[in-house]
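Can't attach files on this board, so I'm pasting raw text. These are the components:
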Amino acid sequence: MNELIYFFNYVVVAGSVTGCIYAMGAIGVTLIYSILRFAHFAHADMMTLGAFVVLLLTLAFPHAGDSLGLPTAIVMLPLAMIFTSLVAVGIDRVFYQPLRAHGVKPIVMVIASLGVTLMLQGLIRLFSGTGAESLYVEARKAIFRIELPGVTRPIIITEPQVILFVVTLVAVIGLHLFLTRARLGKAMRAMSDNPDLARASGINTKLIITLTWVIAGSLATLAGTLLSLDVAFKPDLSFFLLLPIFAAAIVGGVGHPYGAIAGGFLVGFAETLAVFNWSVLLRPLRDSLPSWLELPNNLALVGTEYKIVVPFFILIAVLVWRPTGLFKGKVI
Amino acid sequence: MPLLEAIDVHGGYGGMNILNGVDMAIEADEIGVIVGPNGAGKSTMLKAVFGLLTITGGEIRLRGDPITNLAPHKLVERGMGFVPQEKNIFPSLSVAENLEMGAFLKPGTVSRLKRQIYDIFPPLYDKRHQPAGELSGGQRQMVAMGRALMNEPSVLLLDEPTAGLSPRYMNEIFEQVKRISATGVGVLMVEQNAKQALRIAHRGFVLAAGQNRFTDSGEALLADPQVAKSFLGG
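---
Top answer:
Structure tokens for the assembled complex are below.
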């Protein structure tokens, strides 16, 4: 039983955490692609930016969350979401919109977003330094240990992880309701389907574009902050997020928000399962194994330091065998 | 005063003129049909009316107001509806959502207008929750026309509404166009099926090389031996 708890803690919980983060990032990538038709490489840096804004606000008001019983970073989230959305809309107006007005090819937009990536990374590093920072300023992370009868090992889940699950669930349900019920949400899907006809129907496409950046920026802030809260804020966070969120968006089928969620969890769990030490689960069987077979201490498929190769392999496999992704999306 | 009027329109794509002086006029309850050989500029003329290409000379008027080179969304606000020949639906949206998008500028009227559209196109009611991309060609055309009608346009532009449809569906679409026009909507459409289209046309415009060759009532054009000989295949 202890081994199963270990599996739960290191695969189910850890995989869900990674899955939630990737899903929220991938939804942003997929929405931007379906409305603006380009792969937005600066997306992971919008996640870092959102988390950085939260860090600054938390440093400025370290006790803002005390009265609510929540981590200060969570209380600061709405402000940071608004700020990051404004920055995202601003970046669009300054860098992407002039290019769109010229009718450039999508690849030019992609290169422009690479430029924005470098710029954002540099700016964040300029102000934050290069080290890791905890988002728990003058506070401690609450860790819940759930004891089960008959086992010595408890289920361990942290406060930010619980918040992450709740926030992801609310965000996904909210997005679903928005896209299927709200007039502007439907208009967003319409513009993704057929932008010319959307314009011919009188849909204000500029408003839809702004809205896309607001949603993507807000989700990026949520994902970046909750990841930083669970681990720590690092200025190079985006470096480790960019590939997995693109893999998730492509695996799910680009242009499908639900596919992005599925892809996020698929990539997240694949990563977690690949770095999981399977030897732990085999240990109870050690006595029944033949004597010539010695159980190694570590039976992980890849070392933790190399887990970034997992989304890379998934990406290659999907691009080779099913370039439209699980949900028949567009091909980037 | 005509509902929609084009006077000596010149224009084209990228400096190449396709329209070399087209005149047309329709009244509020009329069907105008543009026919002519391939490359005559029929669809180009319709797109020019809807602001999709730059008009370099001449004028277009809606109820006497000049609307030359206005952007499409401005024309939608002024009561013009346009159904392109291809890509004229939102394939992943349900039929009902397609219609709702047509009334994007008038959200208050959606449910009343949806009922009207289902009355005009009964097959759409049963399929209202189905993605429009899964419908047959004829039903897609109904969705496309329905979407444009949701804005309660005073003039509806149809670009080859029967292209690729079976004769049965073609007649059905023409019947529906007649019904739409009877409710006081001016219709201007481009058609390949010239004979059938001219039969329902109050005004017919035979274009060739970007100019009016013949302009008359549909009946008179069908009866004109010269038109029949050179444009309607004898």
